[in-house]
Amino acid sequence: MAKRFRVSSLLAGKLEELGVQPAAILRQAGLPSGLFDHPKPAVSTEEFFALWQAIGEVSRDPAIGVKIGTEQRIERYDPIAIAALYAPSFSEALHRMARFKQLTCPEEIRIISGARETSVQFLWLLATIPEPSILVDLCFAWVVTIARRGTGTPLSPTRLRLTRARDDQAFLAEYFGCLIEYEAGENAICFHNADLARPFLTHNAELFSMIAPQLEQELNQRDAELSFPDRVRATLKQQLAGQRPTVQILASALNMSVRSLQRRLTTDGSSFQQVLEDARRELARHYLVHSALELNETAYLLGYEDANSFVRAFRCWEGIPPAHWREQQRAQADSMLLISSN
User: Fold this and answer.
1) In the predicted model, what is the mean pLDDT of the chain?
2) What is the pLDDT of residues 90-130, one digit of tens each?
3) Averaged pLDDT for residues 194-218
4) For position 161, what pLDDT does the model report?
5) pLDDT at 242 (0 to 100)
6) Which residues contact 174 (CB under 8 A, 6 or more apart)?
7) pTM for the whole structure
8) Pick from 160, 162, 134: nearest CA to 64
9) pLDDT value for 341
């Protein structure tokens, strides 16, 4: 997993087009004045959130996240967006976005398939405070922009689930064209399963074959730098979505036999149960900080039988019940926001 966020070198120009001065943004965020002059600017999760919070505050435009996320000029697309556009279908585009996004930041795109619809969530793996609302808007607008450009249709989600309180933000309903649920348990954008099967008019296997080797090489290099338990934990986190992964399912995902998997984990001083609990702990902390999910909902997503099982496990990890831990984190986040506003 990447530890820092790569900041697009094109962001400063986009901000200027929208009438926002990059220098003012960096001052407000408390970031170095020469950040955008760096050839490959990268920031921590805390700095990344501060950057987007500052963009919202300085621009005073509640729709700026959507505006930045709906980039239409393909020459400004990064390799991940290009790889998605060249996919044969919307479903494959989403999975390419999720796969290659791992290269650029400590963020995970989680795709959860249901009987009738599929939800897409952005998980901020190293964050200790909730993400800025305009960053959520940008991420969801990015997904919809790829879907509409790829299918050549005004495709809309079935609904948006937002943790923020209801506000007079008509631009969200106008752009996304769907039901918006405020004060939801998590931030998620949902699509009809039938829409995920839509073919992409921009599909181009030949061009994708030209950029895929570089992306795959970077992924392989990243995997080589991870310890084996880290690789296993990352795979488990992708499988934990209301399911209870087994060692057989995990071994299959890693293209290994069960015996080889268990032998490798033992060699590294670990076990399947240990890495499973580590993955659950990381995801539990994310859900408690970044969502308003009830404990029973969180327990379900982590593959526990019931909320009591989750509470017992969390007490072992953190020493206090999850509800108390969540209150502590929110109090800390509120104090940090108060300090930054002063």
Assistant:
1) 88
2) 999 999 999 888 777 778 898 988 889 999 999 887 887 88
3) 91
4) 94
5) 63
6) none
7) 0.76
8) 134
9) 52
Scanning the chain, the segments in alpha helix (DSSP H) are 11-17, 22-29, 45-59, 64-69, 79-85, 90-101, 133-151, 170-176, 193-196, 205-225, 228-239, 247-253, 258-267, 272-290, 295-301, 307-318, 322-341
Task: Determine whether 75 is exposed, middle or buried from the number of CB atoms within 10 Å of its CB (0-12, 13-18, 19+).
Answer: exposed
What Å distances lie between residue 208 and 202, 204, 212, CA to CA?
11, 6, 6
Token pair 């839509």 in the structure block, residue: 198
Which residue intervals of 167-271 are DSSP H helices? 170-176, 193-196, 205-225, 228-239, 247-253, 258-267
Q: State the Cα–Cα distance between residues 339 and 342, nearest whole angstrom.
A: 5
CA dihedral 318, 321, 324, 329 (to 10 degrees): 30
User: 1: how many CB neighbours lie within 10 A of its CB?
Assistant: 17
Other CB atoms within 10 Å distance of the CB of residue 73: 8
Q: Which two tokens stand for residue 291?
A: 């969502």
Strand partners, 181: 161
Question: What's the sign of the alpha-carbon dihedral 289, 68, 121, 184?
Answer: positive
C-alpha to C-alpha distance for 126 and 290, rounded to whole angstroms: 11
Look-up of token digits 């809309």: 156
Question: What is the per-residue DSSP string for 299-324?
Answer: HHHTT-SSHHHHHHHHHHHHSS-HHH
User: Nearest-CA neighbor of 301 among 154, 119, 174?
Assistant: 119
> Hey, what are 67's tokens?
């505006």
Supply the pLDDT for residue 147: 97
Tokens at residue 300, please?
Answer: 């379900």
108 close to 241: Cβ distance less than 8 angstroms: no
Domains of the chain: 62-196 (no CATH), 227-336 (1.10.10.60)
C-alpha closest to that of 307 among 320, 298, 317, 319? 298
